[in-house]
Specification:
Elements: H1 2-19, H2 25-41, H3 46-52, H4 59-70
């Protein structure tokens, strides 16, 4: 199960990097995290995406960061 999860994450990361190759590093990271979060949570709600990322920081901080990046112009 863990191997399949890592394989999916690797494929998503590879795809996200290809489609965001012209963007700056923070934007690339945002694209990778959003695509992975949507796939992992099977939901498009920001709180569920943030929860699926399992980051060490507070959930509200992750949600705020994703929201801030989502509202930016590329």
């Amino acid at each position: 199960m863990i191997t399949k999860l890592r394989e999916n994450q690797s494929q998503i990361t590879h795809f996200a990097r290809r489609i965001s190759s012209d963007f700056k590093k923070p934007t690339k990271k945002y694209v990778v995290e959003m695509l992975y979060g949507i796939q992992a949570s099977k939901d498009v709600k920001l709180s569920n995406i943030a929860r699926s990322l399992n980051q060490e920081i507070a959930l509200i901080k992750t949600e705020t960061r994703l929201s801030r990046h989502g509202g930016r112009r590329i």
